[in-house]
Amino acid sequence: MEDDTTALPSDFCGEVRLFPLSNLVLFPGIVLPLHIFESRYKEMLEDALAGDEMVTMATLIPGFEHDYYSRPPISPIVCIGRVLSHEKTPQGTYNLALAGLERARIQHEVEPVRAYRRAKVCALGSLPSPAGTAGSRQAVKLAEEMLSILPATGPFIEELLKYDVSVAALTDFVSFHLPLATELKLRLLAEPNPGVRAELLLAELSTAKSAPRGRGRRPTDYSDN
Fold first, then answer.
1. Are β-strands 13-21 and 94-110 bridged in parallel, bridged antiparallel, or unpaired?
2. End-to-end CA distance of the chain
3. Comparing C-alpha atoms, which of 214, 109, 124 is closest to residue 172?
């Protein structure tokens, strides 16, 4: 359930602080632990804590390595997050928990006035989850697929289903935690319709599981998040 510490208008448009990382895609409803040690991102966090407490996770596009310390290309699809908790270590670095709030698209980057990057973004919003039998069927099937690939998530998945979690929340949970290709995760983040997200996930997982050994894609072939 959302409260004043995590809510963000679904039609949000505004400037945000960007935290680009490789092979990481944050989703709404996910709490991400982070360790901040680069000076530009310590500055970013300190500015966030002194203001709206928001940090937006962005994904670096492959080939970024030669330009990492400048402004390498990033995916236009991002996730706006808010700092839930933080601690400063004796070494001057930070540990924090960042909650994903809203999927969003970068409209344009803003000329930086600090060491970190900023951008104008607009939230993509989200359509309602499928209702009734269709939604229940998708939720159960996704839970089964999740358990078949990551059995350790069993207790948590069972808890989610017990409280009749929405397909929207479940697709974002599964999309973040399964070792899917980064490109697919970004496609799932860009999709505001939870029913479509569920079908994309189920189709991908079905294809991966049915691929002959040694050919095609299997869950263990995916890049790690």
1. unpaired
2. 26
3. 124
Global confidence as pTM: 0.84
Domains of the chain: 13-123 (2.30.130.40), 132-213 (no CATH)
Render 3-45 in DSSP notation, one character per residue: -TTT---TT-EEEEEEEEETT----TT-EEEEEE-SHHHHHHH
Helices 194-210 and 167-177, packing angle to 10 deg: 40
Q: pLDDT tens per residue, the chain (225 residues)?
A: 334 446 788 789 999 999 999 989 999 999 999 999 999 999 999 999 999 999 999 999 886 666 666 778 999 999 999 999 999 999 999 999 999 999 999 999 999 889 999 999 999 988 888 766 556 788 888 888 888 888 888 888 887 777 778 889 889 999 999 889 999 999 999 999 999 999 999 998 887 766 554 433 333 333 333
Rounded to whole angstroms, the Cα distance separating 15 from 122 reads: 9
Helices and strands (DSSP H and E) totals, the chain: 6, 6
Give 151-157 contacts, CB < 8 A, sequence gap 24+.
153/177
Going by their DSSP bridges, the two strands 54-59 and 13-21 should be labelled as parallel
Q: Which residues contact 131 (CB under 8 A, 6 or more apart)?
A: none
